[in-house]
Amino acid sequence: MRVIAGKCRSLPLRTIDGNGIRPTTDRIKETLFNIIQGEIPGCYFLDLFAGSGAVGIEALSRGAEYACFVEQNRQALKVIRENLAFTKLDADADVAAGDAAAMVRNLRPKKPFDVVFIDPPYSCGLERQALEAIRDASCVTDDTLFIVEARLGTDFSYLESLGYRLLREKKYKTNEHVFLKRKENQEKEH
Length: 190
Hints:
Helix content: 25-40%
Shape: globular
Structural class: alpha/beta
Mean pLDDT: 92
Radius of gyration: 15 Å
Oligomer: single chain
GO molecular function, one term: nucleic acid binding
CATH class: Alpha Beta
Number of helices: 6
Protein name: 16S rRNA (Guanine(966)-N(2))-methyltransferase RsmD
Largest sheet: 7 strands, mixed
Number of domains: 1
CATH superfamily: Vaccinia Virus protein VP39
InterPro entries: DNA_methylase_N6_adenine_CS, RNA_MeTrfase_RsmD, SAM-dependent_MTases_sf
EC number: 2.1.1.171
Distance between the termini: 43 Å
Pfam families: Cons_hypoth95
Strand content: 15-25%
CATH architecture: 3-Layer(aba) Sandwich
Strand order of the largest sheet: 3-2-1-4-5-7-6
CATH topology: Rossmann fold
């Protein structure tokens, strides 16, 4: 696994074998960043269920101003910190240890996150829990772009009832990215 583009292009990143960590492949990461490239320069990026930190590091390499990595696996936290130090991106990042759904309520970045990437373990329903937890958090706005990585065929029929609108889906062989924004406050159903 490596950084695809930007100031850290081609630098190798450590990853974690086993322990339920499933890194986003370089090919899928490249496709994802081709889709969101206009959102990245100068953005605040939140990487929930960060794993090795590869997605947030890619955002920093491509010009994100700041990235926050949330992960609860201790070995993964160590790898995120090592990858940030190796790429010399640690000055523009924070690493938060804990449960993603619980942590988002307490994050207080200098400004709200522009992009939130959510990549929980597949088939556990954690994407819904994270979306519920972050929907009304002070660290996001109606302009925040949410991207969920999930197993292909994951049920997202609940999105509208949670207050989100689907912008786009990108399907791959075994997984997909779902791009969302919150509904505007006046449209939210309570």
